[in-house]
Input
Amino acid sequence: MKMIRKALAVAIAGTALLAGTASAQNKPIEIQMWMGLTGLGGETLTKYGEEFNKMQNEYKVVVSFKGQYPEQRAAAVAAFRAGNPPHIMQMFDAGSGDMMGASKAIVPVSEVFKRAGMQFNPGDFIAPARGYYGLKDGSLLSMPFNVSTSVLFYNKDVFKKAGLDANKPPATWPELIAAAKKIRSTNAANCGFTTTWLAWIQLEQLGARHNLPIGTQANGRGGLNAELNFSNPLFVKQVQTLVDMQKDKSFDYKGRSNDASASFQSGECAMITQSSGAYGGYVRDAKFDWGVAPVPYWPEVKGAPYATTVGGASLWVFNAPNRSAAEFKGVAKFLDYLKSTPVMTDWAKTTGFLPATNAAFKYLTDEGYYAQNPKTAVAIGTLANGKQGEHTGGYRFGRWTEIRDYYHEEVEKALQGKQSAKEAIDNSIKRGNAALRAFEKTAATN
Amino acid sequence: MQRRVIFNEKLLPYLLLAPQLAVTLIFFFWPAGQAIHMSVLSQDAFGQSVTFVGLDNFKEVLGDADYVKTLWRTVLFSSAVAVTALFPALLFAVMAERVIRGATFYRTVLVLPYAIAPAVAGVLWLFMFSPSIGIVAYGLKKLGIDWNPKLDGSDAMILVIMAAAWKQISYNFLFFLAGLQSIPKALLEAASIDGASEWKKFWTITFPLLSPTTFFLLVVNIVYAFFDTFGIIDAVTNGGPAKATEVLVYKVYYDGVHSLNLGSSSAQSVILMAIVIVLTAVQFRYVERKVHY
Output
């Protein structure tokens, strides 16, 4: 035993030495990648960087965490202004409009591959992600990586306690309201239903699910002069529903972003509309029987339900005056590695995000992964296999993170009883459009 | 015989001052200068189009009804934090001053919270009062109180005021204790001989003699609440719900980092800079001269 260990140690030391001399001979080109993920996702992505470095010795990828998406973006902006941005930056869905406005700061990912002389087919990516991050001519601005969509998680134990059918989750909003009321009247849980990512789910995903626009110019993807127009009574009705349900805690507001997640995990809230990316966390931490269902819809809307739209993040490539062609080639090689089927399938299985490429999706399906894990199939069902419409393809507005917060603030005021649901929607549109015009002014002078 | 070292060279004193001067210039004057410069520019986040706009950013900020609301909210928040931090500190100091056995122990325990980083203090309070998992929130619910700082603006405000004041109590306590110890015992003894009650002694002797300390602490606490509570607010409420806990310094951060609206954010920092200059001037001129024993 001791002998083996000693031999192993010598072997390892020898390899390290060899690797050392190799790198001394031709120093690998460093590729910086910044990510906004922590926990499991962050660890896994870092691991891919290390694996890529082991595979070849021309490039050295350094994956680092620079804070949550907004902080990381601010850091990248500062780095860009100093002339040294990261090569690759992971940016969440809502930041896409801002990135696109910075036309001189980024190199479209299709262009990166073209310059490197490497094959890149945008058609390899699943259609919803391609639509969200792509241009009209079919080329891709950024590379979809961690893809998610919204789903409904529900607590089967509470459903049983309330006398509801645990295998028949609510499919429509009226059904969800009835179930939540029943849960409250039987006191099976303190809170019937809650939601994470308020604007993303109750505004953006609601729009896609009912094929309603939230802005002109193909939801902002057609040009910078887009205006918000989510004044359809359905958006008001959605807010009014939450306000009404808040009164008896059949809905309970638990905060912005992912704050509400803990109240589902602790069993306090019986249902939650949430990103499908939360799957891995619930598998590990939820101590009760739970299920996943498609996000509900309003049956009175003609043609509903339509598909949901993508969330998550994509990878953007930065430009800088001193970037060499060799660096861009390294970027292309690493992106190529990330989108390869083994990495994509491993990513989907480990984190619960959806596979971003058709090949990985097909591989997982053929392997029987979705048949064995039906909970993970729900999200891909509504996203990729749902009915597509004119307004299901995604959104791209400048300053969208800020506009989402306007919506959060106005809806919070409505929930506090300080204004009506209609005022909440009208004010969000008004403030949002002011931000869009300001963005158009600065971006158009580029 | 007096020994004096005289440097004939003019260079040496400057050389000795240089490290401190460099730190001050690089970390204080340079960023402040940058903020002033950026406050008169309009630009996109990536700095691709930069135009000089004069005082437009200031006009926009001061003309914004939301900004004025935030200003008043900050005044309310700071006063509440100062008052909440001063009264218990005074009470504790008076009590600790009377303790004879184990005085050092009590003092150490009361000073401990000051050693805790604001963000950590914020997270501790957040956990205790979080509507879903907090132990205090659970107790409040059992008492029939509808506690939800995620939705109710007043609940959120109370929470950040308590979290911000809590750690400042220790700091105030130290100063009050020092102030109490410098009060001549003869005065108190004379009052006792004249038959004054404890209450009377406190209000006619101790409290007036403490007034310089109290004024000093009032200004320090207000400055603290104005500028140093960012970590707590960021950790506990993110300025929400519906802006209920957004104070000036949080708005600077939000507009700069989240919205990447650099012109407005810089203009706001310059306004904050003006406020802190005024407060410091008040502290040095008014407080130190006008308060008499």
The mean pLDDT of chain B is 86.
